[in-house]
Hints:
Blueprint: H1 13-30, H2 36-39, H3 51-65
Amino acid sequence: MPCRWCRPFCGTAAAYLTVMRDGLARWMEIHGFVTIEEVRGRLSLVNSPDPSAFERANYIRTLTSWSADLPTDTAIDIPSL
Length: 81
């Protein structure tokens, strides 16, 4: 049994890959890219005019996207003093 990440690609892999390829091609055309090499590394830290701003933005994005999925059905016994 394939893992849950691979399952969508089993059996209909060609259809999924075609959709992904076509979506990437549309995005590249809209943004003026001709080759995948032009896209590769475009948003890397090395190519950033302000590396510290790049790092801060990624840190903030990480903080805002993180969520703690804590169990809500467990009770915590707090001993009385």
